[in-house]
Amino acid sequence: xxxxxxxxxxxxxxxxxxxxxxxxxxxxxxxxxxxxxxxxxxxxxxxxxxxxxxxxxxxxxxxxxxxxxxxxxxxxxxxxxxxxxxxxxxxxxxxxxxxxxxxxxxxxxxxxxxxxxxxxxxxxxxxxxxxxxxxxxxxxxxxxxxxxxxxxxxxxxxxxxxxxxxxxxxxxxxxxxxxxxxxxxxxxxxxxxxxxxxxxxxxxxxxxxxxxxxxxxxxxxxxxxxxxxxxxxxxxxxxxxxxxxxxxxxxxxxxxxxxxxxxxxxxxxxxxxxxxxxxxxxxxxxxxxxxxxxxxxxxxxxxxxxxxxxxxxxxxxxxxxxxxxxxxxxxxxxxxxxxxxxxxxxxxxxxxxxxxxxxxxxxxxxxxxxxxxxxxxxxxxxxxxxxxxxxxxxxxxxxxxxxxxxxxxxxxxxxxxxxxxxxxxxxxxx
Length: 430
Fold this sequence. Notes:
Elements: H1 9-19, E1 36-40, E2 43-46, E3 49-53, H2 56-59, H3 68-78, H4 92-104, E4 111-115, H5 118-135, E5 143-147, H6 156-160, E6 180-182, H7 192-209, E7 213-218, E8 222-223, E9 229-230, H8 234-246, E10 249-253, E11 275-278, E12 290-294, H9 296-303, H10 320-334, H11 338-353, E13 362-368, E14 371-376, H12 382-391, E15 394-395, E16 402-405, H13 413-429
Helix pairs in contact: 3-10, 4-10, 5-9, 7-8, 11-13, 12-13
Catalytic activity: (8S)-8-amino-7-oxononanoate + S-adenosyl-L-methionine = S-adenosyl-4-methylsulfanyl-2-oxobutanoate + (7R,8S)-7,8-diammoniononanoate
Cofactor: pyridoxal 5'-phosphate
Binding site for substrate: 58, 151, 280, 313, 397
């Protein structure tokens, strides 16, 4: 039976509260949500008032909202066809997106698997690692090496490489594949001796477990939802050396860091992995799409495994509408001086957030690329901090002990100033 509800804001929110789950939110005692009814540029209209979006809709909407180029890509492709199965068929939007990804990712990454979400791309990457080891004569290599403090998504294999103690998935520890964890990399700016000590520990762990390890997976340069932790680029070279020494595949999860967010188009420009996972900003935040880009050597190894094929094929793999938007988003990004824009956002955030280090209850503030983070010395009161930010005209979504921002690249200086005020008010309230 179909029910009809009134469409006024109060009725919509009441129905939402009774029937809809939100991320990491109780169904029986939900935290408040706010109603969005419009969006443009770097702003959302929330409960009838325009606020600056400090989150890029969880790091994805790098071009903001209602961008005419991306809107046109939607219209053009929807006017042809929005979806067709990728099994046994192909189409121009997927081919053109594949061409762009091969062109803009580091040399050697030239085989593209189009998945339908970031978590799924990590699942596919981990399957690829295991199948490669089987195909190259090492079926006993079934564990992944990773570092503490990481986050790679909410599906099962993804949860197994997320920090098992401090991460969001500790309750599933007994059910997940048991992976090998090394210490978290030192913080960005650490001296050479600290990096060397971490590298020594990592090498020791790899030496102990090399016979059972299949690959290494990390978020390069910036750990995201695990703690917004930037670390030195020298650590990436250590990971590459260990992978090569022990015959492991190196996987970089750049779902959050890709497409310019850290100041690099991809962090993989610093050190090239064997497998690269992309998502979030891939479509400019318009629709869900992810990609796994890998080498010819990995593809040949997988072909030598039992099945001879990658054992994964989502219904919406290679969705034409998503692919068309992704190509338009990539062209839009590369057609601007995105590097200067990211640098400008980062500089303004660094200047604006630095004074918060003197506020009682603040442990640290830090920036990397177009990312700003304020870390408290206690868990954030999410409701109070969010209320304070919205009252200041800003949308933020704090978690754990962090109040942070990853704004759209199109944000104006006035909006950045409002954003800094909103973060300041959230810190005082949180």
